[in-house]
Structures are given as C-alpha cells and as structure tokens.
Design brief:
InterPro entries: Arginase, Ureohydrolase, Ureohydrolase_dom_sf, Ureohydrolase_Mn_BS. The protein is α/β, with parallel strands linked by helices. 36% of the residues lie in helices and 17% in strands. The chain is built from eleven helices and eight strands. The structure holds arginine and manganese (II) ion (2 copies). One manganese (II) ion binds next to loops.
Amino acid sequence: MKKISIIGVPMDLGQNRRGVDMGPSAIRYAGLEKRLKSLDLEVIDTGDIEISRDHGQIKKETNLKNLNEVIVTNDNLNNKVSEVISEGSFPLVLGGDHSIAIGTLAGAAKHYDNLGVIWYDAHGDLNTADTSPSGNIHGMPLAVSLGLGHEDLVNIGGYAPKIKPENIVIIGARSLDKGERELIKEKGIKVYTMHEVDKLGMSTVIKETLDYLSKKTEGVHLSLDLDGLDPEDCPGVGTPVMGGLSYRESHLAMEMLSDSGLITSAEFVEVNPILDEKNKTAEAAVGLIASLFGEKLL
Ligand SMILES: NC(=[NH2+])NCCC[C@H](N)C(=O)O
Ligand SMILES: [Mn+2]
Ligand SMILES: [Mn+2]
C-alpha cells in the first residue's frame, strides 16, 4: 500500500503578508487526511516543521527578508523530507509560503540522479537578490534550486545545484519579472504560460510535460502554488494574478499526473486563510491533492 507522509510547514517569512503560516491548518481542516484515507492509502500526519524565528539579520549585507529564519526552517524541512523518502514514504508538504520549496527540493533531489520539477504557478519564482523587486524569498526558490542566489540558500542540504534547468517545466505563468524572463531564455527552461495553456489545452500541456520529463528524470516533484489557479477559484493567496488556471483544468492536470505514476513528491503552497473566502482555497487544495493520489468519481 502506498504510504504518504504529510509534513506541515507553517512558514510566512518568505513574503510580506501574514496568514500564510495558517495554510497547513486550513488544508487539514478541509479534510485532507480523511479524504486520502478513503483512497486506501496509508497516511501519516507527521505534524509541523519547527519554524525558526528571531534569528536576527546575521547576514547584514543582503536585502533578502528574514534570510536567517528561512535558512534554518528550510534546513529542518530538508532533513524531514529526506527522512520520509528514506522510509519509503511519499512526502506531501503543506505550505506555508513558496520559499519552503528550497527545503523540499534539497531533501528530495539527493535521492534521484535527475529530479524533474513541475512548477505549477502564476510566477516563475526565479528571482535572485539582484533581480528581485521585493526581497521576498518566496519569489526565489526555483532559482535557488538551480544554484543561483545567496550561497547560504543555494547550499542548504550541503550540495548544489538540486536540479537542472532542462528538467523543469513551469505551468500557468502569467507574471514574470524582467530578470526571470532573461533567466528562462538563457537557461532554456520549458514554460507553458497561460498563452500556451489556452492554445493547447491542459490535456496536451500535461501530456507534453510528462513526455519531456519522463525521458530524462528518475522522479518528478510537483510544486503547486495555489496562485497558479485563478483568484476566482482560489482567492486565499498573497500574490493573486488574474487570468489563471481554473480549478477544473487543474483537476484534470492532477488526474493525469496521478495516472502517469511519475510523481514522487509534492507540495501545495501559499494558502492564506486570512485572505480566503470560507476556506475555499484550502478546499481546492484538498480536491487537487485527492486527485493527485487517485481519487476518481467512477
Ligand atoms: N511564490 C510566490 N507567490 N511568488 C510571488 C513572487 C512575486 C514576485 N515575482 C517577487 O519576486 O516578489
Ligand atoms: Mn505564485
Ligand atoms: Mn510560487
């Protein structure tokens, strides 16, 4: 029986808006464990990672917000994710802001020769300290995992880089900063912006994504930022961007990923219950997670 380990990361220090630290609670409250158990899976809720607070700005030369706290927290997460994979369980990480992908990928990537990454997001999260318009580390985790950015972030887990540019697929992008666009071109990263999703349809996007990744990767991590979905379906996020993916097409995406059997770890991030409407975004997350683990109507 497939074993899943839920790991909560109540982290809000990678961005400016309070409340996203309550994301893991909101997703649990929306019935995650019960829903997964009904799929005949062995589900273990490992609780929450300890969030480092008040480490002070030891690295004074940087504009990165809460850098020390983000480093310590991601180091904790790196250890937990790695431990779960070593036990033969599937790490399901609940955020928390997207800066936690640094720790998830650090913990996961060392278990595979080539880890693929599906980055389902309105944003590229490919900024570095030099290109970031905000200093928010949640806008940087994909760049960090490629080995670009502050060295203490890049070296979390004691190795770098975690992933290769040719093993990444970004889906749902519609807000990219100048430096991120340049990096995408320079590194040749595969991106399905909303333009391509609309033109091709989600079914083709996922089929192509799996073709592209399955040839060259051993495992695939899904990093799903709920702001990839349209704010109409998922209002409870800190950096909403209109014109997003619908719940309906995201649901199809999860079903197709489930059928492929290729996903080896996942995280669902940026759920902010304070900005949400009656826990709608957390409920959407639970629906997507259930589909990712094989829930079917018939
Ligand atoms: N994980 C996210 N929601 N990221 C949003 C990033 C927004 C913007 N690109 C920044 O760097 O600040
Ligand atoms: Mn985003
Ligand atoms: Mn993101």
